[in-house]
Every structure is written in C-alpha cells, then in structure tokens.
Amino acid sequence: MQVTSSVRQPLVTGGKTYHDVTHDISRQVEGKPSLLWFLAFLTAAGVLALGAIALVATLWEGIGMWGLNKTVGWAWDITNFVWWVGIGHAGTLISAVLLLFRQKWRTSINRAAEAMTIFAVICAAQFPIIHMGRPWLGAYWALPLPNTFGSLWVNFNSPLLWDVFAISTYFSVSLVFWYIGLIPDFATIRDRATGLRKTIYGALSFGWDGAAKTWMRYESVSLILAGLATPLVLSVHTIVSFDFATSVIPGWHTTIFPPYFVAGAIFSGFAMVLTLMIITRKVFKLEDYITIGHIELMNIVIIITGSIVGIAYITEFFIAWYSGVEAEQYAFINRATGPYWWAYWSMMTCNVISPQLFWFKKIRTSIVATFLLSLVVNIGMWFERFVIIVTSLHRDYLPSSWAMFYPTWADVGVYLFTFGLFFSLFFLFAKFFPVINMAEVKSVLKSSSEKVVK
Amino acid sequence: MAHHGEHHYNLEQRFDFTAATKKSIMTVLVIGAILLGIGIVLAMTGGHHEEAGEAGGHAFHWYERLYANLWINNVFFTGIAIVGVFFFAIQFAAQAGWSTPLLRVMLSFGNWLPIAGLLMIATFFLANHDLFHWTHAYLFDQNDPQYDKIIDGKGAFFYWPMEKGTFPVFYIARMVLFFGFWVLFFNKFKKISDQEDQLGGTSHWFKMRSWSAYFLVFFAVSSSISAWDWVMSIDTHWFSTLFGWYVFASWFVSGLSAITLLTIFLKGRGYLEMVNENHVHDLGKFVFGFSIFWTYLWFSQFLLIYYANIPEESVYFIERLSSDVYGGFIFVNLGLNFFLPFLVLMTRDSKRHGVFLKLVCTILLVGHWVDFFLMIQPGTLGHNGGIGFMEVGMFLVYGSAVALVVLGGLAKKNLIAKNHPMLEESYHHHI
C-alpha cells in the first residue's frame, strides 16, 4: 500500500485518469505532425546540413581546418565533446539514481531525459571520431581491433582510451535502459493502432503482453540496469576529467576533478533537460504531467550541483594559492585576469552566481525565468570547459610559445552540425515516441495525483 | 489520512538509559583507560627516543603520541557527530519519508558536538607544536636557517591578521566559528523538533526544511575548510584539492555506520517497532553506496597523484607506502573500508539483517578510524607512530564517552517524531 503525506505536492494535476494519461501522451504519436513540428524539424535538419559542410571540409582537408595551433592543440573539439557528454549525465541521473532513491517525480521526465542522454552522447562521440582525421581507420584502431592480431597495441595507459571504453559502455547501457522503458508504452500505442502503425509499434514492442510475470521482469531489469548505470555515470565523467587531470599541466592536474566534473555534468544536464522539457510540455500540452513542482525540483538540483561546482572553483583557486606552486598560482590568476578573463567571468557568472537566483521561490517556479536560466547554465558550462582547456594551454612553459586560440568557420560549423544532429534526433523522438513514460506515470497516479491528495 | 487507526505503535516511547547499559559502557571506558595507561607507561619507560634525537635535532617525547591520538579521535568523533546532524538535515532537504522514525536517532549524535569542540580547542592549545609544523615561529623568520619559503607563503591562512608565527587567530577563529554554528544549528533542530512534538501541525516541517537548507550551505563550506585546517595542514607542504571531500566521505561513512548501529541497538531493546527490515535495508544501502563513494574518492586522489608523479604531491603517498609503520595500513584501510563492505553488503539479504550490518558497521568504524590514523600520524609522529595500547585505549575511551553523551541526549526526548507529517508514509515503506 502506498501512502502519501499531505505536505507533498501532487505529481499529476488536473484529476487525470489512467485513460487520460494514455490519451494525452499517445495523441501526438498518433496524430499528424503539426506545422510547428515540421518547422522545428526542418530548422534542425537545416542546421545539420549547414554544419555538414564544415564537417565534410574538415574530413576532406584534415583537422588543419580548425583553429588549433602548436600551443593550443586542443580547443573547441574537446570543449564541445566534454560539454555534450556532460549534458548526457542528467538523463541517467534521473532515470537510474532517482530510481534507486525511489523518487516518484522522475516518472514524467525520465523518458525525455534519457533520450536526451543518448542523443547528447551521440553528438559527443562525433568529436573524438572526427578528430582522428581518418575516422574510417580510427574507429577500427580505437576499439581496439588490431590488438586481437597481436601486431599493434593501443596505449592502455592513456585515459583517452579509457574514455572510449567508458563512453561506449555507458552508451550501450543507457540505450538498453531507455529502450526497455519504452517497450510497455510501444505496446500501448500498438494496442490502440491499426494498419501499418500497428505493425511497426508491434515490432518495436517485442510482443509485450502486460502479464504480471512480464511486469515483474521489467521491474527487476530496470533495477539491475539502474544499479549498473549509476557507477557508469560516475565513471564516464570521472574518466573525462582524467583526460586532463592525469597530465602535469597547471590548471588541469588537480585531484578534485573527478567528482567536480560529475557534479558539473549533472548541473549542465539538468539545465538541458529543463530547456527541452519546458518547450515540450508547452507544445504537447503536458502541463499536468510536467508540473511546476517538477520544474521546481529540477531547479533545486541545479542549485545544489551549481553550488558544488562553485565550491570546487573556489577550492581550486584557494589550493593554487595555498600550494605555493608558482605555475599553479599563475594559471589561476591568468584565468581570472589574463586575456581570457571574459571567458572566466562568463563561466563564474553563469554557473555560480546566476543559479543562486533559484533560492527565490518566485524565480524557481517561474517558467520564463527557469527557461532563461537553463540557457544561461548551458552557456556557462560550455565556457567552463573552454576556460579549463584553452586558458591552461595557451600559456606554454616557454613564453615564446604563448599563443591565443581563434576558432575558424570549420570549428563553428562542426559544433553547429552537432546541434543540428541533436535537435533533429530529439524532434524525431518527440514526434514518434511517447515523450512521457505512460506506464510509470500510471504507477504513481493513484498515490500522487491531485485527486487523491486533495 | 484514513489509515490512522490501523497502527498501534507507541509514539510516546522514550529511550530508557538503564543503569545496566551505562555500566557496560563504563566498563568499556575503564578497559580503554587501562589500555591507555599501559600504553603511556610503556611509551614513557621503553621507547626509542634516543635514536630519534639524532634524526633532526628534534627529540621524540612519549606525549607526542598521546597528542596525536587525541587529535585523531577529536577529528574522527567530531565527524560522526556532525554527520548525524547532516544526515538529519538531508532527510528534510530531500523530503524523505522513509526515515522519519530514525530522525531522532540521527540528531542525537549532535550531542557530542559541544564537547568535541571544547576538546578540539583544548588539544590545539596543549599540543600545537607537536601536531602542526606550521605553528613554529622560525619557519617564518627569514634570518633563521630553518626558514621555509613555502610555509611562509601560506602563513596568512593561519595567522592573518597577526604577524606570521605569532598567534594563529584566523585558524582559531575558524575552529570556534565552525563548532559554534554547528552547535547552533543542532540546537535549532532540537528546538523545532520539540515544538513539533508539543504543538503538531505541518508548519514545523516546512520550518525545518528551510533551516536544513541553511545548515547544508554552511556545512558544505565548513566541512571542506575544517578538513584543510585540522587534517591537511598537518602535512604542511602538501596539498590536494580533493582532500576536503575525501575527509567528508570518510566522516559520512563513519556517521552512517554509527547511525545504523544505534538503530539496530534500539530495535534490539524493543524500541522503534515501526522500523522494520525495509528501513534497515535502506540504511544498509547508504552504508554500501557511500563506502563505494569513499573508495572512489580515495582512488581518484591516489591515481591522479600517482599518475602525474609530481614530487611535491606524491611525497604524501610515498611517505606512507614506503614506511614500515604505515605501509601495511594502506591496505588495511582499503580492505576494511572497501572490499569488506562491498562484498558482504552486496546481497539484498545482508542489508536487511541486523547481524551482517552490526558486523560491517563496527568494522567500518574501526576502518575509518584507521583512515584518520593514516592521515594524522605520519605527519605528526613519523616513524614513532603505530597502533598499540595507546591507540586502542584512547579509541575505546572516546568511543564510550561519545556513547554515554549520545545515549544520554537521546534519553531526554521522545524517540519518535510523532507529529512529523511523513510518519505515516514510513509505516508503509516497502522495498
């Protein structure tokens, strides 16, 4: 028996019944795509096509198309990579960690958040692949296939290789987790459909029969996958942070990186979830499922993770001074006051200061403010990676090698390409897949909807 | 709610701190004191302080080991006390319902905080030169042959606004401020709990949520800084940005273990009858999960320092691993705090049965004490340290003193937050 305390906010408003849930969520899958959807999808696909020009140019000419130089040998590529991987983390946090903590509010946002995870990881994966110059060979080397022939070994000491393993494992588990969650909902759509749609959703639902035994298996698989995904989500950004922290570069080599990167990843991921969900709930009229209460809770996660990130920034700054290591001290002073001061202060403002506005209940329950701040956080987290990567590199040990990084049109274009890819995939998902997990929302309907609470 | 009538739990129950319980704790305390006494006598009479004398002009005295022990236990048990308050606040901030019958158990650990604060400050004044290298004035005197440029560079962190090498105002002020605010928050939580018991209604729950958020903000900053102050500054040259969170993780696992043990103890005495294996399971999951989290931080810190191999950082681990005294304890630390809880608490059943948790949580308390031993002794005692009668005795003395204070505090108030708006939810907690 479930009992819900009167101090809890309802998770589903509007007195919805089981049938309402099915109807409200399936209708956009079943209906004709709206004009708005077409416009949105075409815009995304257009950005994708435009960015593809830069991608083709980069593949044709080589990565000399990018603004890298011999001092700043890593810049936009890896910034974008870390940014996208980070965004992916929120989906797993919502679906796996919140499942382990039995947070019922996750049920209406987990589906879209997991989809976002998968698409974001796909976008992230583009950068290391493109960076290989000849990806058709690189993919084969990094797997590492030649290993099995005994002639060539990849560098197992390199965190970049650990990244390949970590991200591919994470991607596989996330994909399976997301898909298994979709199966009962596909079956629901199958059962309501006729003709071709019935065949397609029937195939997608793997013959789901909704028997008690099937549900039991579903629940145990979900728990096992959540248990697997939780250490994986930590491992991914931990290893991403190792890409930098195992080096001896001042500003990169610091022990706080692993947990701080994980917190930052969740922070940026929640911002992206909010950006997407605020639009989705409006366009698909899902305000009764993704309520202000959900938005408020996500904003609280943003305050917490933003503050953790803030404490990490301050800790790094303080320890740089405390260490007495001159290079370390210079790296941080240079970040805040050197030629990239604007990037540093954008990061500080966007990531540390602006999320504190969510302490005001008025702001964290305002849709407009939340939407704007979610964009601000996304911008801030991009700058964070840019600051860490470029400002640490651009002052070489030899002052004669000091340099600046200027992005070329190809840098910008490839980044645009991933935006196009991300939004094209997300819009396709939003149209053809149920954006809210109907089955799981139904499971909390009785205990947590407005009808029962009031 | 329509289900009130179904349960006949005694919501007015109060822990009876019987003379028999007191006597058993006192027995442990006396045994600890005897062991401590033996350790002191052995250290005074035997010992190898003659050879230490030639090492660096600094003769080793037996009481330095006593001071180091005081410091280990001060830091360790302060952690358990503040984690009790922290975990209590987390329940409100996260709107947790399952843990409602355990709230007073968590909060009771805060009773140790005022004493912990006094002990910490007293020990600092008694033993500063023997614990903290940076307290020596000659380090900051440019004309002294032992002048240390690096420590001079960070001197302001301890001495500001006074002259370096004089009186560490800033350091002491932080210590007083942290304990002051922690006690203040603890008293506030107790007060709101009392009012809730007397007056009922949901307003106290909302009030507690706000105060919990304020506390968590203060704790987030103060826990890291106190780790730098009380532990990291012992190895004055060394630094690690992760250290604050690492100490927090060690504290957190110790605190969770202590909360779990006290819960099982109370259940064994017939209290907390609404707490069933589901609640115990959740506590077990926290102990399991955060043991892994502690290991994650241990490993992250170790791997990054090992991999980059920068001398001023790697010295910390080299000093420990290559030492005859401490080398083995690195593996004891990992074995007790990771492998054991990881393997034993892996299955669902072991987290639901008190007997496994009693074993694992007791070992974890010892294990994390070893963790603090490894953080504190190498920098204070060097090769004169180790685990002997003095260590075991002092640990038992502190442990039983904490038990007396915590249980004494627990006995003063109701054991169950009877008017908590989520109590009903916790009755129906099934996992």
UniProtKB/TrEMBL annotation, chain A:
Query: Topology with regard to the membrane?
Result: Multi-pass membrane protein
Q: Which InterPro entries match?
A: NrfD-like
Which stretches are transmembrane?
A: 35-60, 80-101, 113-133, 160-182, 221-240, 260-279, 300-322, 342-360, 367-392, 412-433
What's a single GO CC term here? plasma membrane
Sorted alphabetically, the keyword list is: Cell membrane, Membrane, Transmembrane, Transmembrane helix
| Compartments reported by the entry | Cell membrane
Pfam families xrefs: NrfD
UniProt similarity note: Belongs to the NrfD family.
The name this protein goes by in its record: Quinol:cytochrome c oxidoreductase quinone-binding subunit 1
From TrEMBL, chain B:
Keywords of the record, alphabetical order, are:
Membrane, Transmembrane, Transmembrane helix
For whether the record's keyword set contains Cell membrane, the answer is no
The reply on keyword Lipoprotein is no
Lineage, top-rank taxon, reads Bacteria
Q: Which residues cross the membrane?
A: 24-46, 66-90, 102-127, 167-186, 213-231, 243-266, 286-308, 328-346, 355-376, 388-411
Query: This protein is called what?
Result: Quinol:cytochrome c oxidoreductase quinone-binding subunit 2
Q: Which organism is it from?
A: Algoriphagus boseongensis
